[in-house]
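Quick one, tokens below. Sequence please?
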């Protein structure tokens, strides 16, 4: 029995350490912006389109970083690139605290998106090999790191309060940047432990990566555009509904906590669901999670929304990464993950702009938030079109953990 347990949880420590990468790249760099949006918007007098534009600039940088991640890893080495990108992500968080010029903030957010995407893609590739035979569990643990980031942001940010009782958003960015420096060091050490030897028997697929993953790429675009509006504007909606800081802290804490607690359950479920069905299921549950707060804006409905949304939203990247891990040989896995991340970030670029535009046009913030569940359901339909491939190399990859080619 001890041998069995040791084998079953082999690599768990490395997976947990690598989960600090999405803590920085998503939990702090992207999701914490929702908590800081109201005080930043009040200070600068932004419209909702301008507020969404800062998230969009981050997503555009993220898109560029995702597209270049595989090239950077091949050119400079996966481990080295991962370490530098994660460190630069921490620096970008701290740099966000300094400027008051809108253009400078746009540039910093874009640069931060670029480096966090590289760290995120390479971390996803590395974590796939940490737990042999249990890639779905490793990926679910990895993406739960963003939930920990949300919990920490919801805890640390309210502490950044000035003497007058107003949230000091500059101090909040500095605090998150300092925490990210420590997280980067731990993640780098765990990344070193996750390195596997190249699989010399891996055979490249005759179908291009984008051809193999086409339905999942489109579904991930819809997913990125659909879920991000909720994460960007829900705190602002709570503000408009008259809820105070305690409800905002509870809301963010429930989302992050539910994401962490549900990660192991999703790991088991995704390991059993075929191809695109896991991602389709996640899309439907996340869409359902956005509805209670929109239909019944009461404290109980908001808590239910946070729990349902939080328990499923980071299972989306895990589910689509499992699809790539199953369908692609190790030699093209990093490229496949990069393309999926690029599609995701393109959706995240469009989502806040479209949602902000609808809100500005209608004068209703809730109207813009209704775009989310519609896009998520479209993503579910498209994901069901993803089919397995039948060549022997990829069939083998569905039953064995990939062996990642890593140039240190």
């Amino acid at each position: 029995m001890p041998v069995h347990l040791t084998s079953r949880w082999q690599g768990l420590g490395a997976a947990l350490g690598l989960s600090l990468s999405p803590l920085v790249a998503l939990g702090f760099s992207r999701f914490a912006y929702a908590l800081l949006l109201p005080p930043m918007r009040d200070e600068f007098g932004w419209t909702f389109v301008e507020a969404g534009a800062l998230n969009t600039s981050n997503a555009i940088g993220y898109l560029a970083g995702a597209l270049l991640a595989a090239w950077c890893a091949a050119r400079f080495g996966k481990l080295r690139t991962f370490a530098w990108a994660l460190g630069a992500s921490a620096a970008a968080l701290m740099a966000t605290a300094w400027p008051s010029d809108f253009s400078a903030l746009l540039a910093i957010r874009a640069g931060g998106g670029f480096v966090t995407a590289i760290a995120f893609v390479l971390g996803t590739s590395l974590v796939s090999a940490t737990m042999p035979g249990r890639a779905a569990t490793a990926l679910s643990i990895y993406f739960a790191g963003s939930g920990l980031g949300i919990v920490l942001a919801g805890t640390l940010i309210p502490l950044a309060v000035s003497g007058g009782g107003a949230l000091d958003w500059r101090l909040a960015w500095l605090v998150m940047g300092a925490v990210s420096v420590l997280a980067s060091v731990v993640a780098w050490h765990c990344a070193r432990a996750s390195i596997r030897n190249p699989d010399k028997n891996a055979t490249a697929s005759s179908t291009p990566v984008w051809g193999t993953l086409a339905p999942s790429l489109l579904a991930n675009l819809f997913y990125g555009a659909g879920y991000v509006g909720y994460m960007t504007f829900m705190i602002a909606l709570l503000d408009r509904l008259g809820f105070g800081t305690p409800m905002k802290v509870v809301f963010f804490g429930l989302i992050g906590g539910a994401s962490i607690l549900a990660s192991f359950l999703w790991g088991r479920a995704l390991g059993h669901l075929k191809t695109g069905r896991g991602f389709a299921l996640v899309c439907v549950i996340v869409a359902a999670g956005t509805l209670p707060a929109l239909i019944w804006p009461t404290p109980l409905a908001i808590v239910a929304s946070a729990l349902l949304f939080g328990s499923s939203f980071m299972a989306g990247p895990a589910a689509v990464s499992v699809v790539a891990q199953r369908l692609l040989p190790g030699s093209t896995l990093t490229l496949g993950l990069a393309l999926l991340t690029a599609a995701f970030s393109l959706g995240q670029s469009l989502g806040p702009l479209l949602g902000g535009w609808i809100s500005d046009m209608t004068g209703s913030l809730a109207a813009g938030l209704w775009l989310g569940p519609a896009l998520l359901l479209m993503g579910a339909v498209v994901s069901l079109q993803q089919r397995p491939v039948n060549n022997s190399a990829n069939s083998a990859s569905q039953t064995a953990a990939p062996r990642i080619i890593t140039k240190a």
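The two ends are 36 Å apart (CA to CA). The first helix runs from residue 2 to 8.
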